[in-house]
Amino acid sequence: MAAYLACLAAVGFWPTPVDKPIQGTLASILGYLHDHGVPGWFNYKFIEASANVVLFIPFGILIAMSLPGLKWWRLVALGALASICIELGQLLFMAARFATLMDILMNTAGALIGVAIVRLILRKLTAPPTSTTATLSSHKDLL
């Protein structure tokens, strides 16, 4: 958890946008893809929003595993709070960074996905056997 949070802080509080060194390359790749049939909606804004979602999926997973007793919406709220803190820090202290509501929404969506993954896995692992499984195991004794 500490290693992930350190990486998250590094990305969130890097003095310049983290994609600045590859913006030209990314623009070239997107141009190539668009020239070869990839739809126009697959653009920089889409990639940035997707990256924000992906960045917070591990947050949701780790927080759900660390605090299993909390309700899912409280875990997601912790993701939103972490994102708000990052965006507020960028707004107040980093002139080269841009704090946006969309980043908060996408980060929160990532946290929600991470929490959902953990909760679904735990539900599967703790679910009682289905009637099919129970029926098969009772017939196994007859063999």
Summarize the structure in words.
The chain has helices at about 1-10, 25-35, 45-65, 70-95, 100-125, 130-140. The mean pLDDT is about 90. The chain is built from 6 helices and no strands. The protein has about 140 residues and is mostly helical. Helix content is about 75%, strand content about 0%.
Set out the fold topology.
Layout lengths: L1 H11 L10 H13 L8 H23 L5 H22 L7 H26 L4 H12 L1
Helix pairs in contact: 3-4, 3-5, 4-5
Main β-sheet description: none
Q: Could you estimate the helical fraction of the residues in percent?
A: over 70%
Instruction: Tell me the fraction of residues in β-strands, as a range.
Output: under 5%
Number of strands: 0
The chain-level mean pLDDT equals 89
Q: Which shape, going by the Cα principal axes?
A: globular
- Quote the distance from N terminus to C terminus: 49 Å
| Unreliable stretches covering 5 or more consecutive residues | none
Sheet/helix structural class: mainly alpha
Radius of gyration: 21 Å
Q: Element order, helices and strands?
A: HHHHHH
Number of helices: 6
In short:
The chain is an all-alpha fold. Helices cover 75% and strands 0% of the residues.
Summary keywords:
75% helix, 143 residues, single chain
